[in-house]
Design goal:
The structure holds 4 protein chains of 4 kinds. Chain A is 81% helix and 0% strand. By secondary structure, chain A is an all-alpha fold. Chain A has one domain. Chain A starts with a helix and ends with a helix. By secondary structure, chain D is α/β, with parallel strands linked by helices. Chain D has a 5-stranded parallel beta sheet, sandwiched between helices. The termini of chain D are far apart. The chains are: A mainly alpha, B mainly alpha, C mainly alpha, D alpha/beta. Chains in contact: A-B, A-C, A-D, C-D.
């Protein structure tokens, strides 16, 4: 765990210094391209977390593995945060380029839908009193959602080309030259280690909560047992 | 316009670059902080329950 | 197959006798569409331009409204576990219930849509493509909604939850449904849109009942 | 010849181990009474026997074949009555029963079977009454009549005698006897004793001792 913490902080610090200080501004977008060093890794992580969530859910349902449920449930808020960051930074990046805060660009729109899928999962996971029901229900939703992500992406792309606003610059900007690639990768790996770090914390939390519930149940039953005997 | 101020202005895009980094830092920081705090609280609760269960075991 | 039709007939009889759910959905559809002119203004060619979008979005939400209790009633009175124990696959039971729901609710919606389109000054030539697009699209929405309805069985915030879960998944149907109508409006060939809608339906037909049955099984555990 | 067996069955619901190491052997014509306080897992065991849920450990077999291996075949040989009566208020008594009868039977018209089942539980007078006017006892009798409309080798009844009057309990006794007479197996859970002759010849499986403590730290 501590090495996760150190590598996350180290990677992100390196990524930031390179991204903000050393890498050159873009010839068209100027310094606003630096938003890419947050936006693109966050977008990658948003998709990575949803895939991880669906994978863990499938493993949990097929092999009835409780830990996989815990992993999926712990991943959801992290994925949702990355999606939110991707949306916010995408909008902030879009403003100087297209003059409006929100553009129904194909990628941003798909990211918005992914954000709704995350919210749906989180709310469903919390909508049942019985924890086991909540886990299994949310797991089925994660898988159904995952199957739909490519279909939604396909439809949004088609829909976007249909109503193509005069967007001159695509969101990911010109081809990335090496000096920009390094900070981008550093930030991406830094975000990934952040994910595993917070995942570990949330899973430990969930496992301990499981123990607490078991102890509480035993106390309630032994009390009932004492009363009836 | 000292180099530091030039850096801060981000070629005129300061209003967009800094907020996006700030939002990222805030979101990730808040999630981390909330997770750490919740884990600490759960750990404390678990210890309390376990010590209590331990005492009862020793009494009976 | 006989048993599937049996369940379909029973659900239809229940829907007709009790009627409230599907009638409420159609009334919601009519009222929601009628609200838009008050919001965006009565100006005819503005309404005509966004008419098909309004019709599709409100039809989508109306069917969510009706789908919310698709399994909940049977779950509450114990029929769902008996249906799960009946000598036919649970997927067949799900298909029967979805079909009954679609006939009782989506068909009236489709019947009402052309009338409402006129309310929105929509040109007459979009009425046929609109009806066909709805005919192809609403079954997929009912199939997706059934998965959502199965997932929320026994949950606390059922209704609101169903829309949050299913509407993002229904976006492709919405995009190509409205696309078909607008293509017809502009005189472009609408066939590709209908083919994509049919493709979604053919994909949803096997997958959604399977997912819904899985969700029901773990709800009954 | 034992047909319906369970060995070392274990079940966990939520984070609670409901029971483990539970076994039973039932031959043709036998009746098993499940007793024990509420929450001791009677309903859970019946649902496991019906195949609604799968045990965490152990196996339940019919004629040596695990019931989870051929779920549809197992489902077609059993009749299950849960706590709820599965009665639709908008349908009449005959329509309710007719639906379940034709669902369970293979195509042959269930007319006669419905009449006999209604008569067995004294419901024939209420044949065309919409079910929303039925009392709790009448609804329960309608639910029990369902087990008579289609031949089933295995009856799983969860507290069938709940809200039944004496006459109805007699009818249930009679039904259980004739079911046992022609080789049927029945598992009945009840926390109030079943009166009459059935109780004497029934074998009893008390779930109280088998109730396990939840194992600390399980994540299931």
């Amino acid at each position: 765990m501590p090495w996760l913490q150190r590598s996350t902080l180290g990677l992100i610090a390196a990524g930031l210094t390179l991204g903000l200080f050393l890498s050159p501004p873009d010839y068209q977008q100027g310094d606003s391209v630096r938003i890419m060093y947050v936006h693109v890794p966050a977008a990658w992580m948003a998709l990575f977390c949803y895939t991880a969530m669906a994978g863990a859910s499938a493993a949990a349902l097929v092999w009835r593995h409780a830990l996989a449920h815990v992993a999926a449930r712990a991943t959801a808020p992290i994925g949702a945060s990355f999606t939110f960051i991707a949306l916010a930074s995408g909008s902030l990046w879009g403003k100087p380029m297209w003059g409006t805060w929100w553009v129904w660009d194909a990628r941003l729109t798909s990211m918005l839908v992914l954000f709704f899928l995350y919210l749906g999962y989180i709310v469903l996971a919390g909508a049942f009193d019985d924890r086991e029901r909540a886990q299994k229900s949310a797991a089925v939703l994660a898988i159904v959602g995952f199957v739909n992500v490519p279909i939604i992406k396909f439809s949004v792309d088609w829909w976007n080309t249909l109503h193509q606003p005069a967007s001159v610059l695509k969101i990911d900007g010109p081809s990335i030259d090496p000096s920009m690639l390094a900070p981008l990768l550093l930030m991406a790996i830094g975000f990934a280690t952040y994910y595993f770090w917070v995942l570990a914390i949330r899973m430990q939390d969930e496992i301990m909560a499981g123990k607490i519930r078991a102890l509480r149940l035993r106390r309630a039953e032994s009390e009932a047992g004492d009363r009836s005997s | 316009m000292t180099p530091f101020q030039a850096f801060l202005s981000m070629g005129g895009y300061a209003g967009y670059v800094w907020p996006s980094f700030a939002i990222a830092a805030l979101a990730l920081g808040a999630l981390l902080f909330a997770s750490l705090r919740s884990r600490k609280a759960t750990a404390a609760e678990l210890d309390a329950l376990e010590t209590q269960a331990g005492e009862e075991a020793s009494e009976t | 197959m006989r048993r599937t039709l049996l369940i379909l007939r029973r659900d239809l009889r229940l829907a007709l006798r009790q009627g409230s759910d599907s009638f409420a959905a159609v009334m919601f559809f009519v009222m929601a569409v009628a609200l838009f002119p008050f919001g965006v203004g009565p100006e005819p060619n503005m309404l005509a331009r966004i008419g098909s979008g309004i019709l599709w979005v409100t039809a989508l939400m109306a069917s969510m409204l009706a789908l919310e209790r698709l399994f909940q009633n049977d779950y509450d009175d114990g029929s769902l576990e008996l249906l799960a124990l009946a000598p036919l696959p649970l997927e067949a039971v799900v298909i029967a219930k979805i079909a009954a729901h679609w006939i009782a609710t989506a068909l009236p919606l489709i019947a009402a849509a052309p009338v409402l389109a006129l309310l929105l000054h929509a040109p007459a030539e979009i009425l046929a493509p609109l009806a066909l697009a709805l005919l192809l699209g609403t079954p997929t929405i009912s199939l997706l909604g059934a998965v959502g309805a199965a997932l929320i069985i026994g949950s606390r915030r059922g209704g609101v939850l169903l829309s949050l879960l299913v509407l993002p998944l229904a976006i492709p149907v919405l995009i190509f449904g409205v696309g078909a109508v607008e293509a017809a409006l502009m005189g472009l060939p609408a066939r590709p849109y209908f083919l994509v809608l049919a493709a979604f339906l053919l994909a949803a037909l096997p997958l959604c009942p399977w997912a819904a049955a899985a969700a029901i099984r773990q709800a009954l555990e | 010849m034992t047909r319906f067996t369970g060995d070392d069955v274990a079940c966990v619901r939520g984070e609670r181990t409901v029971f483990f190491g539970l076994s039973f052997q039932l031959g043709a014509g036998e009746l098993l009474l499940l007793t024990g306080p509420n929450g001791s897992g009677k309903s859970t065991l019946l649902r496991l026997m019906a195949g609604l849920s799968r045990p965490i450990g152990g196996r339940i077999q019919w004629d040596g074949e695990d019931i989870a291996a051929e779920p549809e075949r197992h489902r077609s040989r059993l009749q299950y009555v849960g706590h709820a009566d599965a009665v639709k208020p908008q349908l009449s008594v005959k329509e309710n029963l007719g639906f379940w009868a034709s669902l369970a039977r293979d195509g042959v018209s269930p007319g006669a079977a419905i009449e006999d089942a209604l008569a067995a539980f004294g419901m024939e007078a209420l044949r065309d009454m919409p079910s929303r006017f039925l009392s709790a006892g009448q609804r329960r009798r309608l639910a029990l009549a369902r087990i008579l409309v289609a031949p089933a080798a295995l009856w799983l009844l969860d507290e069938p005698a709940a809200s039944l009057d004496d006459a109805a309990v007699q009818a249930l006794d009679h039904a259980l006897q004739s079911h046992g007479a022609n080789g049927g197996i029945a598992v009945v859970s009840t926390h109030i004793g079943l009166a009459g002759e059935t109780a004497t010849r029934a074998r009893v499986l008390d779930l109280t001792p088998a109730r396990a403590r939840p194992v600390v730290g399980t994540l299931a």
